[in-house]
Amino acid sequence: MNITMIGLDTAKAVFQVHAVDAAGQVVIRRKLRRNELIAFFEKQAACTVVMEACGAAHHWACVLTGLGHEVKLIAPEAVRPFVKKGKKNDAADAAAICEATSRPGVRFVPIKSLEQQGVLALHSARALLVKQQTMLANAIRGLATEFGLTVPLGMGKLGELMALVDADEAVPAKARQALTALFDQCSALHESIETFEAEIVAHARHDDTARRLATIPGIGPITASLIAATVADIGVFKEQRRRSLDESDPGTPSYQAGDRGVGKQNGAHRMGIDDAQRGLPRQGTRRDRSGRCRVTFPKAVGGGRKPD
């Protein structure tokens, strides 16, 4: 039984193993409980283990690499076409992983280090707290508006709004209690966000890749840190545009359209635009008087915006 490749479909409790030999013949097809996974791979001879680049994949990649196996991560978009129609289950997914990996020209996702995963955890926590802070601020403004109290936009204006609430005797005591509780919660979130941002800025100052990224106009320390932690190996992208179009990045799937030999490579799906891309300035764009974005071109190729 000479196993050369194992397709592993990961989950929280049950894992599906699909092992093949050099000829592509199925050798093992079985389910494993979480506590059985490491023991199973400890008994196997060193081989190639392939997983979809999804939740916990980078963790298992580090664990299995430590056991002597060669671990590769493949984008889910590259696996999906090989799942047999009408058989969407763990066994079919594991088999499709092996089938997709055996195809020529397949691209793999670089494995993130533990340090990169730690930095990404900081960014995820900060993004969640910022979202919650915005929700609380909107709730405070909405409740205050019910009593005719408004202030200009901005988080810094919430203190002025609460001062108006305290000074207005017409505001009921119960409403004042609710607004005060929301404002206290918003203030606590602000302190936590500042703590996370300090850690992120410290990473940006000590990481070589983040420091180089921060020299680009429009990229600050938070965005530089996020890109450095998200993209494990920037060398897999041949050019800047491939950062948002290349299928080797599982977070930004691209799509193509066209017929009669004329194809068009479109931008990344809306669902694939991640936090790192949102923080990047869109080079070569400007807004006209109507507020719409227009693409501008250098004068050497005609200048102005592209004709409609």
List key phrases describing it.
308 residues, alpha+beta, 6-stranded mixed sheet, 11 helices, elongated, disordered C terminus
Describe this structure in words.
- The structure is a single chain.
- About 45% of the residues lie in helices and about 15% in strands.
- It starts with a strand and ends in a 13-residue tail after the last strand.
- With about 300 residues, the chain is an alpha+beta fold.
- α6 packs antiparallel against α7 (about 175-205).
- The protein has three domains: about 5-110, YqgF/RNase H-like domain (Nucleotidyltransferase, domain 5, 2-Layer Sandwich), CATH 3.30.420.140; about 115-225, no CATH class; about 235-300, no CATH class.
Structural class: alpha+beta
| β-strand amount | 5-15%
Largest beta sheet, briefly? 6 strands, mixed
Gap between N and C termini = 62 Å
| Number of discrete domains | 3
Count of beta strands: 10
In N-to-C order, the SSE pattern is: EEEHEHEHHEHHHHHHEEHEE
* Overall geometric form: elongated
Strand order of the largest sheet: 3-2-1-4-5-6
Tell me roughly what share of residues is in helical segments. 40-55%
Residue runs with pLDDT of under 50 for 5 or more positions: 244-248, 250-255, 267-273, 293-308
- Mean pLDDT across all amino acids: 82
Q: Please tell me how large the radius of gyration is.
A: 25 Å
Q: Tally the helices: what do you get?
A: 11
